[in-house]
Amino acid sequence: MSYIEKRRWGWLARLATSFVLATAPLAVGSSVWAQDDAAVQDGGTLVVVLPGDPQGLNSALSTDTASSNIVGQIYGTLVRLDADGAVQPYMAETWDVSEDGLTYTFTLFEGVTWHDGEPFTADDVAWGLWNVNREYNGASAGLLAAVESIEATDDLTVVFNLAYPYPPLLAGLAYPNSATILPRHLFDNGSDPRQNPANQHPIGTGPFMFKEWRAGSHIELVSNPDYHFDGRPYLDRLIFQVIPNEAARGLALERGDADFIPYYSMSLSEYERLSGIEGIAATIHLRTIAGEYMAFFNTRNEPFNIPEVRQALYHGVNRDELLEKAAFGLGTVATGPISSAQSQFYTPAGTFYDYDPDLAEQMLDEAGFPRGADGTRFSVRLSYDQKEGPMTNTAALIRAQWARIGVNLVVSPMESGAWREAVYRRWDFDIQMGTWATGPDPAIGVQGIYTCETIDPNGGRNASGYCNEELDAVFFEAAQEVDHERRVELYADAVEILTADAPHMWLWDRQYPVAFDEDLVGLPGDPSAYGPFDYVGWKQ
Amino acid sequence: MSLGLFLLKRIAYATPLLVGAIVLIFVLVRLAPGNPVDYIIGEMGADPVVVARLMADMGLDQPVYVQLYRYVLQVLTGDLGHSFVSNAPVIDLILDRLPATLLLMVSQLVLSILIGVWLGVLSARKPGSSLDNAITIFSLATFAIPVFWLGQMLILTAGYYLHWFPIQGMVNFRAGYTGWEHVVDVAYHMVLPVTAMTLLNLALIQRLTRASMIEVLGQDYVKVARAKGLTEGAVLVRHALRNGLLPVVTVIGLEFRSLIAGAVLTETVFAWPGLGRLTFDAIGTRDYPLLMGMFIFMCALVIIGNLITDLLYALLDPRIRYS
Where is the ABC transmembrane type-1 domain (chain B) (predicted)? Predict the structure, then answer.
């Protein structure tokens, strides 16, 4: 954490450090994000690049990334994350977690109003999170699973009562895609919240107010004069411009038509080009969502039901080559199911599968799959969503690598909807790959693709069908454990079990490149990546 | 037969066609693998109870024929429903994007017809001349170039290196123009996408006009017109072109459907906020109500396009009557 970064968050940090749980600091490469605050212009316009229209402007209902980023400017959450991943006040000024971890009490900032002038109260928080977010948003239902009730005890106090301790709750409440706070006076009208007009014309409590949404073109926000952090935001206008053409995004940034390409609009190859251009800062945004590219074996199918075969195939993949050639070096070779970017929980535990084609061949021979007359042991299918950037090159590289160990890979790129159906509902695949979040907390990101109960074609995401009761016990204990050190140990145990059995091949831990105009300061380095732009401005 | 009766008859024919198209498309869309719930819950998954409720809310737990029956009833009341993904009313989503697409499509259609017919007449006048060859090479080249590549090259040259035109979108957001300045701003942003689409479409029109004009110019009545001592211009435009345009009108009428389908690439390359992109996204997310709404809309457009073609025939050729 740089000096300036520290100063920017200093006043927040002083307020909050005493309440913060489990904050082994994240290693944030924050130097580019941190700039001198004193030299920021008051006013100005920021144009942010969107890859397409957001699904809607209500993240209480949808978990779409780009929507969350926009909604995070308009609506508030109880808390927010700083560049170190530490929890900071946002709509709540202070909070207290009881010793037993079963009661969370939040005290809201006084005098906050919705953008339409109505007062913002604890009742909004309690009603919306319980009746909308929890009901309609899968991620939110997961986050609030341990919560038995949310009560507004007075206008400024909200109490969460938990059935069992759930430490990820506090940081989870900083994520707009699960914990956006809606105005009760607009949503509590007896009709379906998904068809509420406010989903297209949101009224929030955040630093920017909604002005217009021209579908397919742009969304315009203007600064909120009554924002409860004095003197913020710096910017007058914030525009999210839709640019579906990947190659044109960088050109628009270079021409000065656009100012900021967030990670969800950035293609890896474009990043490499923009890095060399004067006036543009290209850097990596660390995110606690900590995505990881991985391949699932379908452990129901021959021969992937045999652990030795999975291990052998894993040894046959040269992941350094994948990272370098398919991902332009943007990442690190994965060691297991928790990304190294998830530094509060990552440990280099478990079995590491280095590239060793000879060992792979020997293991396949021993497992009873010798090379046939044509030199081939067996044929397998590899499916992926063709929209997932680096997967096409990854598939081509694995195909070449496995040809060396006598395994014939049939590559099948699929249309997104068809891929989800085949992988999650029909389980019709041999190996499938893509990117999955491993954060912000392993209880949220990791657990859901490995436990037995998530082998379910109706919404379950354990596509590999791997079921291990010993592992389940570790995951369930870790999710409810209050002591952070103990949780880290438990997740290390989970990593040991998983890497030994190798139901997946963990390919590489993702990095999230961004690029922006060098005259821009204060872009949030917060690891939710959805944080408000109230500190963003142009240099004097 | 009067024009009014003719129109009524055509609309009567069109209605069962439209219903048939709705049923067919509805079934095809549901048969495609994938469903909107899996898209909405994302890669984190969700509790089966939540999934079941979402399916029930969208009516997806019912057999396809029940869904179809409900949908047809709903459409008959004039309600296209709400998008599964954005939750906005489908009709609003479509009408929001329609003006941008119409602006782009009508502009390029008018330009490519004017330029294409003009070039076609020019080359038919002296087939095999160097002018004809030059025009032929030009139109074959523009016809062969994929529009996304052409668009990308226009962006790079005229936009990025020469700074003549804006490269993306429909307006300058930073400036936020209003009134006449806004109109000029939009026109300025239209130059590159309209150029790309015009270059693509005029080739077909030029080739057709040329072929049909060459045939017409060889006919006796043209010789008569020339023998009467009419000017070359009058012979070409008033006598020959009027006849020669018939096949061209047919093809343009048939091309109506591709106005939207063909817009997908152009709109994507130039970030033009039109219907093409909307349809493409709806397919990716299996947004059934929006997809169906778009298909119904396109069917209606094709039917209207064919109607206009028929009317134009009669206008151009008095021998054709509404019968």
Answer: 98-309
